Amino acid sequence: MANDARSDAPPSSTPSFRQSLVAELPGIRAYAITLCGTQHGADDLVQDTLLKAWGAAASFRPGTNMRAWLFVILRNTYFSLYRRRAREVQDVDGAHAERLSVPGGQEATIDLSDFRRALAQLPEEQREALIMVGASGLSYEEAAAVCGTALGTIKSRVNRARARLADLLGISGTGDLGGDRHTEAVIRQGGSTVANS
Question: Which domains does the chain have, with CATH numbers?
Answer without folding.
Answer: 8-85 (1.10.1740.10), 100-191 (1.10.10.10)
